[in-house]
Specification:
The protein is mainly β. It contains seven helices and 46 strands.
Length: 795
């Protein structure tokens, strides 16, 4: 299919989705029968009957009662009737979630919609496996609502990282993105190893980083949880978790949204999202996106484009209210993308001085497709809520790339050009069953069980092409396979110690079992370099607890102190060049995190200040290095490390039409003990991917004009210099850089359409994603300045 036909396909698909649902949204009445009772039980009962998602501050509902509600009413009118006289108000009603709370003094009467127009937006998160306002959760997290994602044009995890203290997202190549939270990361690509930061989409864990970077569109929220999340998220989350929530359609409402944009580098993008009511007990959501742009770089020897993009995504959800107490959410998604690989530009041999061209002379390529399906069941019983999450995720990616930053035609002597083909296929089935108790006066808890079955395969072919001639001096194919079975049982609950203090205690027991196989074929030295092994087994079990003491100093200020543990499972070095290195598994790495934080809102909820200080102590940290004694590149538990830091987030809404935000993160990371056998002593070095200072400033506006609104956003982000690994090699150091993005536009008075002009990396800053020392010094840059125009419509 040609690029033009793909563009036409995307435009036609978006138009078809809109025309299928471009009908007026009609308020539908529902029948209610909610007896007079305490608000803490009445609100969930009302939400089930209304088919709405409602979040309320359970810890402040003690002693609050609601009147009886009976009859056929519009859902939102019924909600206002239910909370009239309780002091509660609707603080926000967007993204398919209604947030209730107690408005500040002087705000509009209780029960009114949007009682404080200058109050900050309430972001609903699921960090504790319940829907809660982010400010009430005693965890350090950064959460972006769907509105914020759209306003700041946060289209990828790398965009999210610009405005998130403690999060760094970069890339070695397309199949190996780097995701680090507070310095917790690794550069392992072996199929038998795990990553310490989890990416979770709609309660489903993504097992490989090759499937973890994708375009973000039509989401309810993105939540970045900092530090170990081993109790509730479990799998390998030593450093943190990125939780992506796609939301769900509302019952009784039909709406559609579409946007199209064009820009430099041949950019074309079309997105559409449709929510359609199927009666008053069923709803469907369809979301589709296509994005195409030309290459930001090119190989000057082959003329091929690099860092281009051709991406398509489709998501579908069906929401069913089977009974008054049972809801089902069925989902499926598909994504495929393709490009010409990364622009790795030589700084030495063959360089033409242009950092946006490569001298590889090798046909690079990256292609990926992935899909997922899930069934989420929510049973709201009188004794609590039971949730079942069943899902399967599958991904396949393949990349041809040059590891050396210059063609063999420019090399001399005994040097050579390394080229690679890396293909992986991963399937993961998971089942989680959990129970959430009612919100009792003395506390509440969540408990559950988890099972995952992962089947991962990878083929890596590495060749070395001799200087000048291009003759193959090395050619190795590793055929890798690892099966992982994981079981877990967990419980997490809070006890109210009077009115001012809460004690949260939780623990998870996880058991991981891995079975690995490797067939290594050396085509140049078959007698000495080829070997095979299969059915290698290892298992590990670990308890990861957490304890949090929260002091509610005021209704809008909470101070919390926590101790949490996490672990990343052990595994096998399936890239091993010797049988001994393969058969010896490495053990889990463990971390204990100590944290003191505050979450507060001031000035009638117009100013939000969140801050935390923390220390993470690593034990048996997993590291990849070249063993000077065995002369083998291997993974082993080689290090103790300490990470200390501070994170601050400040948000202000001085007027109803302007939001201001500032973030800052400080990291002090250190290997306490890391000596490579027969090699370097890295003790005292900083951890890789851990910039000492990282900050941002941002603003978005929605200002009324005589007719319509002036809309726009601007952000400045700064990332301090850092090393990509533990060696403190100056050639593997990334210099500090700052980026500026901005947009400005007009929105119609009724919000039906808007047009926006935008620019990213406005200063056209050349910043490095990855430096390379393989063969020659080389570098891979991030995106150049891009700009364009976006047209949006709502129906």
């Amino acid at each position: 299919m040609s690029r033009l036909s793909r563009r036409m396909w995307g435009c036609g698909a978006a138009l078809a989705m809109i025309l299928a649902a471009a009908t007026p949204a009609l308020a539908q009445q529902r029948v209610f029968d909610v007896p007079a009772q305490p608000a803490v039980t009445a609100i969930p009962q009302f939400a089930r009957q209304a088919g709405l998602q409602i979040v309320a501050p359970a810890d402040r509902l003690r002693g609050v009662s609601t009147p009886a509600l009976k009859g056929a009413l519009d859902a939102r009118a019924a909600l206002r009737q239910l909370i009239a006289g309780t002091g509660l108000a609707i603080l926000s009603d967007s993204g398919g979630v209604i947030v209730l709370g107690f408005p500040p003094a002087g705000a509009a009467p209780a029960g009114a919609a949007d009682p404080s127009p200058t109050a900050l937006e309430t972001v609903v998160v699921t960090a504790q496996k319940r829907e809660e306002a982010a400010q009430t959760v005693p965890i350090t997290l950064t959460a972006f609502s769907g509105r914020a994602l759209d306003a700041y044009r946060l289209d990828s995890l790398r965009d999210i990282s610009r405005l998130t203290p403690g999060l760094l997202v970069s890339a070695f190549n397309y199949s190996s993105p780097t995701i680090a939270v507070r310095g917790a990361s690794n550069t392992f690509t072996q199929i038998g190893a795990n990553k310490p930061v989890a990416v979770v989409v709609d309660d489903l864990f993504i097992p490989r980083n090759s499937a973890a970077s994708f375009e973000l569109f039509g989401l309810r929220s993105v939540q970045v949880l900092k530090g170990p999340q081993g109790t509730l998220f479990g799998r390998n989350v030593t450093g943190g978790a990125i939780v992506i929530d796609t939301g769900k359609p509302a019952f009784g409402e039909t709406s559609a949204m579409a946007r199209g944009e064009t820009g430099n580098y041949g950019l074309y993008r079309a997105d559409a999202l449709v929510d359609a009511a199927l009666g008053d007990r069923a709803a469907v959501r369809l979301a589709g996106s296509i994005k195409v742009h030309d290459g930001y770089g090119r190989d000057r020897l082959t003329g091929a484009e690099e860092d281009d993009l051709d991406s398509r995504t489709l998501r579908a959800q069906l929401r069913l209210q089977a009974t008054d107490t049972l809801e089902a959410l069925l989902g499926a998604d598909y994504n495929e993308d393709h490009n010409g690989g990364r622009t790795l530009s030589s700084k030495a041999a063959g360089s033409d001085g242009n950092r946006r061209t490569s001298e590889l002379g090798f046909p690079q390529d990256f292609a990926r497709n992935q899909w997922g399906a899930s069934a989420r069941l929510y049973w709201s019983a009188p004794v609590g809520e039971v949730t079942s999450v069943t899902g399967y995720r599958w991904s396949q990616s393949g990349e041809d790339y040059a590891g050396t930053g210059a063609s063999y035609t420019f090399l001399t002597g005994t040097s050579s050009q390394a080229v690679n083909r890396d293909v992986d296929r991963v399937g993961l089935f998971s089942q989680e069953l959990r129970y959430a108790s009612p919100k009792w006066d003395r506390g509440d808890f969540v408990a559950g069980v988890y099972f995952a079955d992962e089947d991962a395969k990878r083929q890596l072919r590495t060749m070395s092409l001799a200087a000048v001639t291009g003759a193959r001096v090395a050619d190795v194919l590793t055929d890798q396979a690892v099966k992982t079975t994981s079981y877990a049982v967990f419980a997490d609950g809070v006890v109210h110690l009077g009115e001012a203090f809460d004690l949260t205690l939780g623990a998870r027991y996880t058991h991981d079992r891995k079975t690995a196989s490797l067939n290594r074929t050396d085509f140049v030295r078959p007698a000495t370099g080829s070997f095979a092994a299969s059915d290698l087994k290892a298992s590990w079990g670990e308890v990861t607890p957490r304890a949090v003491l929260t002091w509610k100093a005021t209704p809008d200020a909470r101070v919390y102190a926590s101790v949490t543990r996490g672990y990343t499972a052990g595994g096998f070095n399936t890239d091993a060049s010797s049988l001994t290195a393969l058969t010896q598994p490495f053990n889990p790495e463990k971390v204990t995190n100590y944290e003191l934080g505050v979450k507060s809102q001031w000035l009638g909820d117009r100013l939000r200040l969140n801050a935390s200080v923390f220390q993470m102590d690593y034990k048996d940290k997993q590291e990849l290095f070249f063993n000077g004694l065995t002369r083998v590149l291997t993974i082993t538990n080689a290090a103790k490390a300490t990470v200390k830091g501070v994170e601050v987030e400040l948000t202000v809404r001085p007027t109803a039409w302007l939001n201001l935000m500032a973030t800052y993160g400080y990291l002090d990371t250190r290997y306490d003990d890391f000596v490579i056998p027969g090699g370097a002593d890295n003790t005292g070095h900083p951890l890789g991917s851990s910039p000492r200072n990282k900050g941002s400033l941002a603003a978005d506006l929605h200002a009324p004009l005589a007719s319509g609104y002036l809309i726009g956003a601007a952000s400045w982000s700064y990332t301090d210099g850092y090393y990509t690994g533990a060696t403190k090699d100056p050639n593997l150091h990334i210099d500090s850089y700052s980026l500026v993005n901005a947009s400005l536009g007009y929105e119609a008075a009724d919000g039906a359409w808007s047009v926006t002009v935008w620019g990213r990396n406005l200063a056209d800053k050349d910043y490095v994603l990855t430096p390379s020392t393989q063969g020659v010094l080389a570098e891979y840059l991030g995106e150049p300045r891009t700009y364009g125009v976006t047209l949006r419509g709502r129906f």
